[in-house]
Amino acid sequence: MSTVDPSLARIQRTPRRPSLGRVIFLLIVLLGGGFGLGYGWGGFGLFDGMGEPPWQSIVGAIVGLMITILGSIGWSWTVMKRADVGIGYGLAAWFIGGGTGLLIVAQPSGSPPLAAMIAAALLALGVLFLVLGLVAAISRRRQSSRDERTMRTGTLTAATVSNKGYDFFRESPRILTTVTFTFVDRQGTQRWVQKTMVIEQSDPVVDGQETRLWYDAANPGDVRGIVVELARERQMRH
Length: 238
What we know:
Radius of gyration: 24 Å
Number of strands: 5
Distance between the termini: 29 Å
Structural class: alpha+beta
Keywords: Membrane, Transmembrane, Transmembrane helix
Protein name: DUF3592 domain-containing protein
Shape: elongated
Largest sheet: 5 strands, antiparallel
Strand content: 15-25%
Transmembrane segments: 20-42, 54-75, 87-108, 114-139
Number of helices: 6
């Protein structure tokens, strides 16, 4: 028994969803980091070895590396909290920035064929990761819509954790694991379904724990059409 609503306590423990402004800012940071590295290392590659290397290349390489590291850390945290963005967008920004930086630094030298070819490859990779990011985001959005539809129109039943998917917590108070649930459909057939979940040490999942489950009674074997409330509450990305 508790004097505090447990669902409210869970919401308060969950970090807020990163804003769109934060997403745009981090993409700009990664774009700038890639630009700095492309400009800096491109300048070193075009340096003829006479005298000191251009100071712009030195600054670009150092600052670009620092910005890339910081931006990557921030982006990794952000994509865990937003299902509408992914690693692909960050990689796209970084590669496009790198290709652009290399093209700009190579212009005074007449854009040597090798530099132009590398820059084109970086830009192509950027576009590829952008497309992959869009496809992944659309797929996640469709799955989320399908889950919501299943919860509205599907068959509701009780499910039990048959295998919590972990033994104990080690260094980290958080575990990403696959939890197995079992339920009985309308025909009396026992079924099992596995869902990937993030489990906190302060709120562990235990074998035998019950939760709600929705499924399509016309196709109970469709795993992607099964929604487990416990797994939905603790999904890796929100």
